[in-house]
Each structure stands twice: as C-alpha cells, then as structure tokens.
Design goal:
This protein is mainly alpha-helical and 275 residues long. Among the domains are: 106 residues, no CATH class; 68 residues, no CATH class. It is 70% helix and 0% strand. It is built from 14 helices and no strands.
Length: 275
C-alpha cells in the first residue's frame, strides 16, 4: 500500500483526494473570505469614526449635553441674623431683631420678633398685632402679646384680637394648639374667670386639637372647676385628650387611681361627699 502522500502524486489518487477533501477546502475558503470581509469592515469603520478629542477636552456631544443641563443654583435661604447677647448692646440687638423681621424665612422672623420683645416691648407689640393674620407668624405674635409680660389689664385687651385671628387663621394644627396654649395662659393671668370659661368652651370643642391644648392647662384652675372637666375628658373619643386628662389629674390631685375613669370618679366622690 502506497503512503497517502505518494498517492496524491498519481492522477487517480489526486482525483479521489480532491473529491474527498472538497468540502473541507470549500469551508476553509469560505472562512477566509469571511475573515477578510470582517477585517475590511473594521478598518473602514475605524477610518470613518470621528477623531477622539484631545485629553482634557469634551467631545461635541458631551458639550451639548452640558450646555442643555440647567446650571447648579445654590440655596437662596438667607443666613440667620446674628443678634448680640451682650447686656450693654441693646441698640445693636434691636437693630438686628428688626433686620431679622425683614427676612423671608418665617422662623427667622419669629426669632426677630421674640428678640425685639425683650428690648423694646412697645415696638414688639405693634409688630405682633400686625402679624396676627400671617399663619406663619401668629404663634410668635400670640406669645409676645399674651405671655411676654405686661400688666394683667394690658394682656386682657389683647385676648379678643388673638382669638378672632385664630378663628380666621389657616394655620396648621400644631400652631393652633400653641396659640390656644398662649390664650389660656394669658387668660389665666389676666382674667381667671375668663380662663375658666375659655377652658370649658374648649373642652366642648369639636376639634380634638382644641381639647388637647386645653386639658393640661385645667390644672391652673380651682379643683371644683378643673376636676369635673378632667373626669369628662377621661371618656373623650380622642386618645390624646384621654392621655392628657390622666396626666393632668394625677399632677393636680397628687394621687394615682390608675387608668380607669370609674376609679377616678369614685375618688372624687369620696373626697367631696357633698358634691
């Protein structure tokens, strides 16, 4: 038997060999053509691509995107005004407080009004009266007008205006509660009888925040006025009012009858058999 390499030299062997290897040769030729076409496409794509920008320089698309992006705008909230605390620097404090009152920030304006009331009460009262209709300032204004000092008669004159402003105000519930607290404190200082009427009216209010605000301040009333209202508040549908009533009656009575309204009513009956 001839060696396969030698058989390729003969015509018959060459014919049989080409026939046998024709599929393999066709596959190799197809693969070579495909590789050549791929290499040509890569070279052509590389030659048509835009040149890379120099180091440190943005491409045109990146520059367009950066131009379309809105620029960064720093916060415009004003810096707080520095109000001096030096006891000898009242003029400077008044000036700084007035500057704070001109701020666009409600918290800064409130701080300025309270600071002004410590050095120039007359000016602060005038400012506070003008701010009662501002829902962001009524809390600070009520505090200055009702619990910031002054004779009982002066405070009593401010109560109707604060109540009327609160009735028409669109302030949030937390602010309303704080203003009601100032009203009750100011009323108890200026007109105890008026404070009792106000507290009783608030405990009958349909608004839970009114009842929650009034409940702790019932401790400043006489027992005969406060305890019946607190006992009624133990059955309030609002859990915040019930908890405030429990806390207040414990502080008021120096006793602890637990959480049961009936136990507290029994204690009150035993302490006041004639009622």
């Amino acid at each position: 038997m001839l060696h396969p390499l030698r058989r390729l030299l003969t015509g018959e062997a060459r014919s049989r060999s080409l026939t046998a290897y024709r599929p393999a040769l066709w596959a190799a030729a197809s693969l070579a053509l495909a590789l050549g076409a791929y290499a040509f496409g890569v070279r052509r794509g590389a030659s048509s691509a835009p040149p890379s920008p120099p180091p440190g320089e943005r491409a045109p698309e990146a520059r367009e995107l950066a131009a379309a992006r809105p620029p960064h705008r720093p916060s415009r909230r004003p810096a707080p005004v520095d109000i001096p605390k030096d006891p000898e620097g009242a003029p400077d404090r008044i000036s700084a407080a007035l500057m704070a009152l001109g701020s666009a920030d409600p918290a800064e304006r409130s701080r300025g009004l309270l600071a002004l009331s410590r050095d120039d009460r007359a000016a602060a009262l005038a400012k506070a009266r003008g701010l009662l209709d501002d829902p962001t300032m009524i809390r600070a204004a009520a505090a200055v007008l009702l619990v910031g000092g002054g004779a009982p008669g002066e405070v009593a004159k401010e109560i109707p205006a604060v109540r009327a402003a609160l009735d028409r105000s669109s302030c949030d519930s937390d602010t309303r509660t704080a203003v009601l607290g100032s009203l009750l404190q100011g009323s108890n200082y200026a007109d105890p009888e008026g404070a009792r009427r106000l507290a009783a009216g608030l405990m009958l209010s349909k608004a839970p925040e009114d009842r929650r605000a009034a409940t702790p301040l019932l401790a400043s009333l006489n027992a005969s006025d406060a305890v019946p209202l607190l006992l009624a508040a133990l059955d309030d549908p609002d859990p915040g009012v019930r908890q405030a009533a429990l806390t207040t009656i414990r502080i008021f009575s120096h006793h602890d009858q637990g959480d049961s309204p009936e136990a507290w009513r029994a204690w009150w009956r035993n302490a006041n058999p004639g009622l």
